[in-house]
Automatic annotation (TrEMBL), chain A:
This is Molybdopterin-synthase adenylyltransferase MoeB. GO terms for cellular component: cytosol. Pfam families: ThiF (PF00899). CDD domains: ThiF_MoeB_HesA_family. The gene is moeB. Residues 13-246 form the THIF-type NAD/FAD binding fold domain. GO terms for molecular function: ATP binding; nucleotidyltransferase activity; sulfotransferase activity; thiosulfate-cyanide sulfurtransferase activity; ubiquitin-like modifier activating enzyme activity. InterPro entries: ThiF/MoeB/HesA, ThiF_NAD_FAD-bd, Ubiquitin-activating_enz. It comes from Halovenus carboxidivorans. The lineage of its organism: Archaea, Methanobacteriati, Methanobacteriota, Stenosarchaea group, Halobacteria.
TrEMBL record, chain B:
SUPFAM superfamilies: MoaD/ThiS. PANTHER family: SULFUR CARRIER PROTEIN CYSO, SULFUR CARRIER PROTEIN SLR0821-RELATED. It comes from the Archaea. Pfam families: ThiS. This is MoaD family protein. The lineage of its organism: Archaea, Methanobacteriati, Methanobacteriota, Stenosarchaea group, Halobacteria.
Amino acid sequence: MALDLDAEQLDRYSRHIIMDDVGPEGQAALLDSSVLVVGAGGLGAPVLQYLAAAGVGHIGIADDDVVELSNLQRQVIHGNDDVGRPKVDSAEEFIAALNPDVDVDTYETRVTQDNAESLIEGYDVIVDASDNFPTRFLLNDACMLADKPLSHGAVYKFEGQATTLTGGPCYRCLFPEAPPEGTIPNCAEAGVLGVLPGTIGAIQATEVIKLILDEGDTLEGRLLAYDAGGMSFDFVPIAPNPECPVCGDQPHIDSVTEGEYAGACTLGD
Amino acid sequence: MNVELRFFANFREAVGQKEIGWEVDGDATVGSVLRDVEAEYPEVDIFNEDGEVREFLSIMKNGRDITYMDGPETRLESDDTVSVFPPVAGG
């Protein structure tokens, strides 16, 4: 496979290639991989930066927002001149400027019950860099049902969470249902330390790259809880829940097109 | 005896600190301590109208989810740590 790398790629990725744990084969695997990043905001920015720099050959970006001035405090792939433009467009331009090896597909849409399955279908790994519970639970369920690895990251003020879900336990094993709307404030309501999603997003990118390389130990079965204020990292074990509605012994979610994800995001029995 | 309570995200704000020591009786359970916390801090909301832990919260004793022990009836021993862990959504 090493012969597939041209002279420019051997140079660009030389710090990967000289490592035994990556090598030319690992780099070729990265170039041959595809990752869908849902959300091109605070978390998505560093995820996209590092996946593109690492040479993930095919990156999909799903986001239906436009860049706002208040985003620029943390969403480092968008610039002043991008305010008002679709985030998927400025994200695509950022990647094109960084690494021409990366093919980008953009989806200027929210992930919905109707499009979730088809969006994730063509990708090896999915990254949840979204900003709301309905999308998070929808992605968890869709990825579990389609047997796609999912990198989860979320931020709140000075605190961040990250985990990697590869078929069970899943996010619902720890949190069976989303909180009712208004219970847990989002970034716009609560605020977020600008650099915090940089840390969590970089961890998500790390996990994705490890999954592609099949190297190291991921956050599978444990949730990382990072407190930027106390500069502490805690790990919460995620045990498989036999009563989990998606990956338990008798799951009752067998399709994301049914059930209720909007609003309170609880599923009717 | 004394146990340690740890709070994350918005629960941290509701009690005003990350960790607090809590004096409990020898027969204390996770549920009894958290009910005391609810009584002490009006903004802390852990139990629903039926007296069950709200579905979206993860409550842990010594880092393990109480779902896989005896739930809120899980007994406490001196120096145990109880964590209240909500999901967060921001991105």
